């Protein structure tokens, strides 16, 4: 049972990026919350703003000033954006952790994996180096690393991609975070290893009660792991619902288009994947109209103004003029 207490609440968050003097609305008025013990999946094409949203929470966006961000990110009843980098550094890696897509570039190639995890523990916990080393071995064992006492002294290149991702998970959970952000954490892995990593994180969540924000392109994966799915496009949330509701009855044309591009293995009929015409980059500068309008095959006059967020039932929201009056 998911605890209904909100642990993170994002309100009207806007992040502007400047590329060659052009303003890009990477995150454009996001409202989102996550409950204790809940898993939400954020899905959408590359360029939708998923990773920018995640990095905003952790204060990891490069060359971003306070003038480039608006809104609020409340964690433990404090607006993270009101605090200095010193405060954010205290919660980053401790209360909120992140697993990146490519563990090889995320781990330091010239440091032994045991030392990297031990450093994370010593940074946030008041324990001795000896106890930190014992905790490191326990963590690596818990994520399925065999022969830990030998492997703890090895370097990242001595591990396979799946094993490196397990090391990253051990580091991410080393301080028992309240929230874990998995940013495309299984994209570079084979299918069998993906399943192992997903099951591992699920087991850890059941034991610790942490919340998970899973960022992915894989809608099939999102349907299996998430309590709630958020569909992003060009910096905005177009649809949000429970996993069952979204997959059984998607409403937004963009969500429908994404689902039609998912391979169907349970059918004998061979059909061509449906393409979405156009490019997401054409929508990143839009402020006043629906961001999906340039690519939508159901657009009409109302779509030239930004649609309201329409609550279709207790667990399903959609930002689309097609449902005006419902």
Describe the structure in your own words.
β7 (179-183), α8 and β8 form a beta-alpha-beta unit. Helices cover 31% and strands 24% of the residues. The protein has a domain at 6-95 and 211-323: Rossmann fold (3-Layer(aba) Sandwich). The strands form two sheets. It has an eight-stranded mixed beta sheet with strand order 6-7-8-3-9-10-12-11, with helices on both faces. It is α/β, with parallel strands linked by helices. The chain is built from eleven helices and twelve strands.
Helix segment tally: 11
User: Percent of residues in beta strands?
Assistant: 15-25%
What's the arrangement of strands in the largest beta sheet? 6-7-8-3-9-10-12-11
| Main pleated sheet | 8 strands, mixed
Overall CATH architecture of the domain at 6-95 and 211-323: 3-Layer(aba) Sandwich
- Termini gap: 30 Å
- Secondary structural class: alpha/beta
CATH fold type of the domain at 6-95 and 211-323? Rossmann fold
* N-to-C order of helices and strands: EEEHEEHEHHHHHEHEHEEHHEE
Unreliable stretches (pLDDT < 50, length at least 5) are none
Give a short summary of the structure.
The protein is of the alpha/beta class and 326 residues long.
